[in-house]
Amino acid sequence: MPLAELMSQIEKLPKIDKLRLMQFLATELVKEEDANFFVANQEYPIWSPYNCFGAAAVLMEALKKSDTNQQ
Q1: Please, what is the Cα angle at 28 between 26 and 31, to 5 degrees?
Q2: What are the pLDDT digits (tens) for 21-60?
Q3: Which residue from 6, 35, 36, 32 is spatially nearest to 21, judged by alpha carbons?
Q4: Rounded CA gap, 41 and 15, in Å?
Q5: What are phi and psi of 63, to 5 degrees?
Q6: pLDDT score, position 40
Q7: Domain ranges in the chain?
Q8: Within 13 Å and on the Cβ side, how many CA atoms surround 49?
Q9: What gap in Å lies between CA 15 and CA 38, rounded to an integer?
Q10: Cα 42 vs. chain centroid, distance in angstroms?
Q11: What is the predicted pLDDT for the residue at 10?
């Protein structure tokens, strides 16, 4: 099927199917790039701002300095 025909068919899809297609294509691209990009049942750490009290303190100090400089 030519790309132009495929694209015209995609335009007719509902939004949820377009999102599923995007997910499918992204997964396919990752598979082509590196077969071991994500391994099933593997844990991957993700950074979270929760319990980052040091960062909050630095931000508060910067806000205080900014407030003082504006007065």
Answers
A1: 110
A2: 999 999 888 778 766 667 788 888 888 878 888 888 899 9
A3: 6
A4: 30
A5: -65, -40
A6: 81
A7: 3-70
A8: 4
A9: 27
A10: 19
A11: 95
For residues 44 and 52, is the Cβ–Cβ distance under 8 A?
no
Q: How confident is the model at residue 4 (pLDDT cuts 50, 70, 90)?
A: very high
Residue with tokens 């400089």: 69
* Amino acid type, 44: Y
Task: Read off the pLDDT band of 12 (50, 70, 90).
Answer: very high
The answer to whether the beta carbons of residues 50 and 39 sit under 8 Å apart is no
Residue with tokens 């939004």: 15
The owner of tokens 């025909």 is 5
Is the Cα dihedral 23, 29, 31, 33 positive or negative?
Answer: negative
Helices (H), the chain: 3-11, 15-33, 53-70
Which H or E run contains 44?
none
